[in-house]
Amino acid sequence: MSSVRFGVNYTPTHGWFHHWLDFDLDEVHADLDSIGRLGLDHIRVFPVWPVFQPNRALIRPRAVEQLVRLVDTAAEHGLDVNVDGLQGHLSSFDFVPSWTTTWHRRNLFTDPAVAEGQAEYLRTLAEALADRPNFLGMTVGNEVNQFSAAPHPDPDPVTHEQAADWLRRMLDACERGAPGRCHLHASYDAAWYHDGHPFTPAHSARLGAMTAVHSWVFNGTAQRHGATGAATEQHAAYLVELSKAWADRPDRPVWLQEVGAPAPHIPPERAAAFTEATVANALDCPAVWGVTWWCSHDVDRALADFPELEYGLGLLTNDREVKPAGRAIARIVREQRGREHQPTPRRTALVLDVDDAYGAPDRSGCAPGGEYFEAWMRLAAQGLRPAVVLAERAADAGHLADRGITEVVTVSQTLKGAGR
C-alpha cells in the first residue's frame, strides 16, 4: 500500500483563471511557493478551453507553451500536476469556445466535428507534457457533465450510451498523447444523485485510470444536517464508498478530487474543524488515492459576479497568507507523511437498489434527504463504517469476500437499528 497524496486545486491569485490571458511566471512562482509551504505534493490546473483552442482548427502554441512552463515551475516547487482539459465549467462560469455556440451551436457530446476538435485538443496538451516527470496525467474536464442536462440553462442532450462513447474517445485521446499516465474524468454529483442523468455512476467508477469524486455539502447536506452534523462531515467519505459499489475491482483507486468548506454552510470559524473531520473520514475509506482541496487561494474580490461562497474557499488568502483550514491541511500532511494508507475493510454494507446498475435510473435516493443517503448516514453516526453494495451484488459471496464485507443490511433494517 502507498501513502495518500495531498494536493490542492490551483486558483491563481493574479487574475484567477483569466491569468492565461496575462500569463506571469513570477506570479505563478509565488503562488506555487505558498502552496509548497503547506507540504502538499500536487496541484490540479485548469487551462481555459476557449483561450487554448479559440478555433476548432487552432490550438494556440503559445498557450500550450505556457502550460508546459507552469508544469515545469511546479516541479521546481516539488509539485506534481494533473491537468484538466475542457474548461468547461469553473466556479459557476461556463467557458466554451465560440465554435460551439450561437451561430455555430453544436452539441458538445454528439457532434462529430466538435468531438474531433476536443480529442485533438486533449491529445495535444497530453503530448506536450508527456516527457515531464511531474505530469500525473489528464482529467478530461472539470464537471463537464453539468452541460448535459438540467439544471443547466442550455444543455447539450446526450444518452448515457453516448456519454460513455464520448468519455472513451476523450480518454483514448489523452492516452495517445501521453501513454501510460493516469488519465481520468470527473463529474459533479448529479452523476450520483440525479435520476436519469446521462453521466452515470458506472461511467465514473469504470472508465479511466481511477474514480474521481467531488464533494460539496452545499448540495443540501449541510442545509439538512447542519455544519457539525455527522452527514456533513461524512459526505466525502460517503461519495468515496458510494463509488465503490460500481467499481469492477475492490482496489480501484478513488481520488477525492474536489472538497471544500463553503461558507455560510460551513461558518469560517468551523472551517478548520470541518477540514480535519472530512479528511479523517475520507482516510478511513480503503483505496483512496488522494485528497485535493478546493482551492489554493481565495478569489480576488476585485473580480465581479462570483457567487459569494466562491470568494473564500482558499487554503490561503489572495495575499498568500495561510488560513485556518490551510493550517489544518498542513498538520494533516505532516502527520500522514510516509504513513501507509491501509484502513481496515468496511465489514457492514448497506444494499443499494437503483433498478439498473449501469443506467442507474433511480439515483435520487442516494442524494441528501433521500432514503438511502439518510440510512447510510444513520449507520455512520453509530460508528459502523458502512460500505455500499449494489442489490445485484448483495448475494455474490465472491464479491463480498473480495471487499471484506461480512454483513449486508437493508435500508428498512436501519430503521430498526440493525447492523453491527
From TrEMBL:
- Keyword field: Hydrolase
What Gene Ontology molecular function terms does this protein carry?
A: hydrolase activity
Matching entries from InterPro entries are given as: GH
Determine if Hydrolase is one of this entry's keywords: yes
Please identify the protein, giving its name as recorded: Glycosyl hydrolase
Question: What is the organism field in this record?
Answer: Streptomyces silvisoli
